[in-house]
Sequence to fold (681 residues):
Amino acid sequence: MYNNFTKLDRKVETIKNISNIEKRAKELKDLINYHNYRYYVLDSPEISDAEYDELVRELIEIEEIHPELVTPDSPTQRVGAPPAEGFLPVHHRTKMLSLSDAFSFDELSAFLDRIEKGLPGEEINYVCELKVDGTATSLTYENGLLVTGATRGDGKVGEEVTPNIKTIRSIPLKLRMKAPPSSMEVRGEAFFSIEQFEEINKERSKKDESLFANPRNAAAGSLRQLDPSITARRELDSIFYSTGYISDRSFKTHWDVLQFLKESGFKISKYAKRIEIRDEIFKFCEEWQKKRDTLPYEIDGIVIKVNSLEQQEKLGATSKSPRWAIAYKFPAEQKTTKVLDITVSVGRTGALTPVAILEPVKVAGSTVGRATLHNEDEMRRKDIRIGDWVIIQKAGDVIPEVVAPISSKRTGDEKIYKIPDYCPVCGAEAIRPPGEVVKRCTNISCPAQRFEHILHWMSRGAMDIAGGPATVGQLLKNEMIEDIADLYFLTKENLLNVEHFQEKSAENFYNSIDNSKKRPFSRVLFGLGIRHVGSHVSDVLAKNFPSMEELKNTSFDDLIAINEIGPAVAESVVKFFKQERNLKVVEKLKRAGLNMQEVVEGGAPKKLEGLTFVLTGTLSQFTRQEAEDKVKALGGRPSSSVSKKTDYLVAGENPGSKLDKAKDLGVKIIDEEGFAELIGE
Fold:
């Protein structure tokens, strides 16, 4: 059907009326999308680059004259979005689980044994796919049109990056089928070819910008660009491997799903293979371990999946990963180099980690000049010294690490390194708690910790302030904040001086900060980022010490006397409040008007005392965090998974698989209106 369109015998100037213009615009969109598919998915172009460019130019001319003809599936929309002010959250309809890893054939064999034990007497076959080294994506199509592109995030909630997704030309803006599903979510990987990755780093080097460590980091960073034109210039590619949700369709096997994706216009791995004999899985892994360097992109292993979807359902999943799939990771490539020095890096939790400064060497596709030594005990166990010749590798093909010294090459001039007792960044005391393997800086305002600490404070589980890494980076870069408390003394005028902020976005960020003052005391405690004090422990502390003043002056013995508070938590809390810098931050937060005490209800029974709630789908009256806070405030317990102990499932719009499980278990199901009535709102 497309052969009639290949000659450019019609131009915009010759089109005389709107009906012809509309017809030509549709022809051009169909034709360009077809040739995109031929070139980027099938790798089999039918026209020259010049002919393709001429088609695109003609469509652009039509759309400039008649902007009403621009549609979401128009090829011109791949690079046309303006820079974003931030990323909106996207709740995945079904959770994007991560895969468990097998690092040896023994571990892979144990996985296969578990599969066979879980499916006794059943015939089992598998699908093996190459594990592309990129970043996970989730795309939603409505009636065949791409409407949302998102990152994986934490598996439940990702970030919307639709304009950036549209720049990837191997991703269809419109599904290639006459009767597409009314709704479909697909999962895949965005990645760079090795050639493109090297080209990007060359350009960054010319601009004195930091280089990406590997293609995976480059893909993740490119997909999260606020300006889609930057993503477009980097030319990401994609491969798809599953559906998260699909209406109007059902499949029996994973292989059927792959073929459906291929027919819909998605690129799938052409090396995927169905395997019926267990031993063939090991042969497939060995084959691609040897052949991985022949590919134009990086792979770091093989994904093995049970083929039958019914059997996948039987095997189920843990909270983190499916029981029916695993990623076999290739053994790390090792190289020899020299330790020029050993220094210390300070992580987001204040951990002092020894780092070997190496004579640069290329390992697994990138040049390595630094490698982690993990902690002081590990460094002593391996006996790594300054001046040693060592063997290095990339753990999981990502993080460089020192495996062992080559003792036979020692000259006697090598030096043993000792971790300092003070933070090398801020000078605060570094303490190694009993039973732990690392020393930690005790100052929450330490510059090395500030960035991650501020992001934690702003996170949904803590103060829920709209903004991300780009915003925090700009505020720190412009020296507008030094710690979390400084956020509350910013003005709208201050924010307008920050890159990417405009009138509306500055007002939204300012209002978000102001609204966070209403968060309960327990959330303030969690946001402080005290070592070992997570969300649940913060609730426990707030109930037993209902004001910051009481908690600040409590003793180690008082703390460990409380159920669920152990020695590690108690010691961490006491040390936190002994630091003068930490007390100054808490005092500033108090002056800013945050809740420094728990609101205690006067003995009245709590409506939801002892009840467990699970929320699924999208709520319109509350955010997920607000709904969970309501449950906790009324004595209930929010949970992330449905079980026999669940009392209520609150089902919003587009509920996921939790709804089916709740029905199977006989759990009481209520909608958002019922939930609001239950909590008295």
The longest strand covers residues 334-346. The longest helix spans residues 18-41. The chain has five domains: 3-78, 101-329, 334-409, 447-592, 612-678.
